[in-house]
Design brief:
Length: 165
């Protein structure tokens, strides 16, 4: 396969390291809502990597499967989420002005909201009689806020690093 090169292998290894770190070390910290660092990593890789799009989508699917094996209650939960995120961002990558922080953040924030809706639907699926409580809604809002804050900071650093090059 012509898309496999050393850069893609390094992206996969760093993603696996982030998945293991998130699944082991970061679970010991009791935060209101823990940011999904692997999702943010996939955002940055899909938007700013100069690799071809297909290997990035496959890498995100593999990272999702590994993350499912490590921490998910349902198999396919993160793999579908990461796959759809990578497809959307690689499609939008060429249509964005990637050096404009507001445009990139708006697209990523929209993907985060869609991802939170997906997680809500996927979490409620086994419990059809579950009434959405305030705690459930607040946890989704905390998920979106914590991820968007970390994503904003990561995008800010990435855009400054890309401009320096």
């Amino acid at each position: 396969m012509s898309g496999i090169n050393m850069k893609n292998i390094i992206i996969l290894i760093v993603g696996i390291f982030i998945a293991i770190l998130t699944a082991t070390v970061l679970n010991f910290f009791d935060l209101l809502s823990q940011p999904d660092f692997l999702m943010i990593f996939i955002f940055l890789v899909c938007l700013y990597s100069k690799s071809q799009d297909t290997p990035l989508i496959i890498i995100s699917l593999v990272l999702g499967i590994i993350y499912d094996i490590l921490i998910a209650r349902y198999q396919g939960f993160y793999s579908i989420s990461f796959f759809l995120t990578a497809v959307a961002l690689t499609y939008l990558k060429n249509k964005l002005l990637r050096d404009k922080l507001s445009a990139v953040f708006f697209v990523c924030f929209t993907v985060l909201i869609i991802n939170a809706i997906y997680r809500t639907i996927f979490s409620i699926y086994p419990y059809f009689n579950l009434i959405i409580s305030n705690k459930f809604i607040i946890s989704n809002i905390q998920f979106i806020l914590s991820n968007s804050i970390v994503l904003y900071l990561a995008l800010l650093i990435t855009i400054k690093a890309v401009k320096i090059r």
